[in-house]
Amino acid sequence: MYKFLVACSVLMFSTAAVGQELTADEIIRKAMDHYRGQTSHAQMSMVIHRPDWQREMGMKTWTEGDKRTLVRVTVPAKDAGNGTLSVDGNMWTYTPKINRVVKVPSSMMSQNWMGSDFSNKDISKDTDIIDQYDHELVGNYQQDGHYVYVIQSVPHEEAAVVWGKEVLHIRDDWVMLEQQFWDQDDQLVKTLRTLEIREMDGREVAAVIRMSREGVEEEWTEVRTAAIDFDVELAENLFTLSNLRNPRE
Amino acid sequence: MSAISCRNLCKTFRQGEEVITGLDHVNLDIEGGSFVCLSGPSGSGKTTLLNAMGGLDTPDEGEITVGEYRVDRLSKGELADMRLRSIGFVFQSYNLIPVLSARENVEFVMQVQGLPAPERRSRAEQVLAEVGLSGLEERLPGDMSGGQQQRVAVARAIANQPALVLADEPTANLDTRTAAQLMDLFVALNRERGITFVIATHDVRVMGYARRLVSMRDGLIVADEQQESHSMEV
Amino acid sequence: MSVTWRLAWRNLWRHSRRTWLTVGAMVFCNVLLIFLISLQLGSYQMMIDNSLASFSGHAQVQHRDYLEEQRMRQSVPRAAALAASARDALGLETTAARGMAFALVSSEQRSFGVLLQGVQPVYEPGVSTFPGLVRQGRYLASGDGGHIVLGSVLAQNLKVGLGDELTFLGSGRDGSFAAGVATIVGILDTGMDEIDRSVAQVPLAWFQDIFSMGDHAHSVVVRLPSLEQVPVAVATLEGLVGGQDELVVRDWDALQPGLRQAIASDMASGWFTYVVLIVLVAFSVLNTQLMSVLERTREFGVMLALGMRPAQLARLVGMETLLMSGLGMALGVLLGALLTWYLSVAGFAYPGMEELGAKFNMPGRMYPEVSLLSLLWGPVVVLFGAMLAAIYPALRLFRLAPVAAMRAV
Ligand SMILES: Nc1ncnc2c1ncn2[C@@H]1O[C@H](COP(=O)(O)OP(=O)(O)OP(=O)(O)O)[C@@H](O)[C@H]1O
Ligand SMILES: [Mg+2]
């Protein structure tokens, strides 16, 4: 009896792992959880590359759950202390130069974040995609011994979203390999690609991701994760405006 | 010099149903330098014959030779050229261009002939003097008497030094004295320049000037006689 | 003058009243055409001038890719110095440097994205009508730093008034975080919603500081007294920026491509009126010349009998028409020129136009354009129309036979 139960559970586990039984929604959910964890804290750098020009910024990020993100710039010194807080789809920016917190209006969420190829929305690492889109598994392939799901996500009729659709490539260990952003006219606008995967804090993590607009591949922005800890203890007031204004670190 | 030769000239006109005979197998030879009158009652074909000779109208049948021209074979353009260079016309009514002065009327024809401007002017004045209009060169036709106007028409006709002048009823609108003066002018031009004159008329006094009198009736030549001319000069 | 020309001229006056009526119709039509065309051209001039005067100027020096991509880094180095040397080279005060940056503008209550303009307070009024449209407070002045002038609708949307502070967030030319606080000193009201909703101007020096621009800006704007001076001014500016490959000089047509199209389509709308006028005059000429040919059949018959060719008679009729319409053209151009010249000096206003002009800081009267084009275009076409109309009467002469014509009454 016990053996039977074990056999069943092994069977169930293995089928789940192969993904036959997983729905597109579940795959997305898992991918989101994978890269955010319950909580996370990371050291990153952002490289904005243009043909005639390049700029690098160091920053720290914290996330909690689906809806809370804090980004704080550390390098270069000129920009250190600038921060962006995003809670429940709202976004605030703090600039030490003028010592003010400014709310980023929702009309600006699709604007570039600080001249990069990421939008404010991308930076907030919002998980809107989970509940504002309908997901459909449209394909799969093998890569490096992994199974990769291809999911097409189309926003709900009434969703306030700029994209016509997104196409996601998610590996069976829940690392997102590629995220394509298509406009309402079904033209590919930009693509976020994972260039390097490394194990950090016991997980396979997309260590280098690059966003580039379709047709201008010589212009891109990379986010390189130097270190990340998942499921860390976070201070209670981390995701508050007063913390944004007065960093304790 | 210039000889006119008509062979078997026929011309009919159609007026509705009616067919009118203008010329009926007319044969006529006119020597160069002669002074001929065509006479006959109204409708006898005088004008039709003159028009045929002058290339204003083409006959239905027959041949006409005027000098070196085979008139019946010429195109419209060639006929116009012939009229312009070799034939002078004097019509019953004076037919001057009313807005041009006597001199300009004469000059205008010379200009059409292509004479250079300075030559035109002196020749026009010379010709007008010849027809006795010295001093009236700048008069407009409206300011001249019928006789004077007809002299301008004569001046215009002889301006191009034609060998042949065709005149259709030139005296019809003139009083006796003026008519006589005009005929004297014709006779003088005939004598001094050797210009051939063919004059259609039913004025008996005019016929008196002719040395040859051709009579017509119903499109036929009914008489052709030489006669003593009795101009006033003689 | 040859006899034929004299003949043609005198023939005209055989029926002087009829000729005068026809000439009069032509003169009237010509004067009307000159007036309408010069008014139309003048109004285009005004349209162009007004629309260029408001902001873009007649020409700008820009980075070669700025017009298309409008990126922060596509800037003009030493812009204020370039503007100063352009002032010297052109002998005009109306030249100014400008910087443009997209920024998030926030008040206590609201935030909006705007295209912030860094302007030279002293020179900007020379190249734009906006500074003259400040309805509350004042325009920027030299020595201003963190001061801003913004459109009335934008002020309303931000719920701010004079003396309030606004913060700016954006990214600098070097990609760094750009931020600043500016006090509102003026609110301008252009009457054009899309401008009042978007315009926000700060002093260029402050702008350059905030956005890490150094001595760069995004354009050097030149406003000229008239459109004719554009090619020369563009050449002068090109001389000034000669060595710098990344810079180009753009004229108004390149800056505002829609403007020429708008004019072209408006131009077409005037045509119908003109064509109707010209056709009417052509018919009047046709009528006159047909009558004059018909009543002279006998005379033409005699001329044909004397040996003139029909073509020569047709030429005579052509010459008569030419003299008549030439007279109509000469008188029409003379009167039309006097009228439009007077209006071009005194100006011309529709009712209500002056109030409108005052409201938009634009000229309240329009000045018809007196040019060879505006004076001659209409009358020349009328002349051609008249000559065309004479073709039919002239052609009739080719059907004339001398004998038949002489018999005609
Ligand atoms: N174009 C024409 N159409 C019809 N009939 C014509 C035409 N021309 C001439 N006729 C007729 O031809 C005939 C000859 O006319 P023509 O003019 O030659 O006579 P005429 O001798 O000159 O007469 P008149 O002395 O009256 O001038 C006349 O019956 C005339 O009516
Ligand atoms: Mg007769």
Task: Describe, in plain words, how this protein is organized in 3D.
The complex is a heterotrimer of chains A (about 250), B (about 230) and C (about 400). Helix content of chain A is about 20%, strand content about 45%. Chain A is an alpha+beta fold and about 250 residues long. Chain A has a single domain (about 1-245), classed as Clam (outer membrane lipoprotein receptor (LolB), chain A), CATH 2.50.20.10. Chain B has a single domain (about 1-225), classed as 3-Layer(aba) Sandwich (Rossmann fold). Chain C has about 400 residues and is α+β, with helices and mostly antiparallel strands. Helix content of chain C is about 55%, strand content about 15%. Chain C has helices spanning about 5-10, 15-55, 65-70, 80-90, 125, 150-160, 195, 205-210, 230-240, 250-255, 255-295, 295-305, 310-345, 355-360, 370-390, 390-395, 400-405, and strands at about 60-65, 95-105, 110-120, 135, 145-150, 165-170, 175-190, 200-205, 220, 245-250. In chain C, α1 crosses α13. Chain C is elongated and about 100 Å long. The mean pLDDT of chain C is about 90. Classes of the chains: A alpha+beta (about 250), B alpha/beta (about 230), C alpha+beta (about 400). Chains B and C meet through α2 and α3 of B and α1, α12 and α17 of C. The complex binds adenosine-5'-triphosphate and magnesium ion. The site of adenosine-5'-triphosphate has 13 residues of chain B, from β1, β2 and α1.
